[in-house]
Amino acid sequence: MYVAPVGGTAVQDHVALAEIELCGDLIIAASAALEDRLSLESIDEVLRVAEERSRDRGGEQ
Question: What is the reported pTM?
């Protein structure tokens, strides 16, 4: 059995941390929603899909 050494070996996976943050944002939005499910438009808004697409296009909308 392998046991990780104690202290000083923390590794941060920035992609995983970003995904966890997005999941948290979705959970918060879902818990605050009045309807049973979030619409696709609501999910896109929470995940800031339009902002990301705009940035990918160089600021065009």
Answer: 0.64
- Are the beta carbons of 54 and 60 closer than 8 angstroms? yes
d(CA 21, CA 14): 10
What type of residue sits at position 25? D
CA distance 51 to 21: 17
Q: What is the pLDDT of residues 1-55, one digit of tens each?
A: 776 666 666 667 888 999 999 999 999 999 999 988 999 999 999 998 888 778 7
Alpha helices, H only, the chain? 14-32, 40-46, 49-56
Residue showing tokens 């941060």:
12
**Residue 19, Cβ density class (10 Å: 0-12 exposed, 13-18 middle, ≥19 buried):** exposed
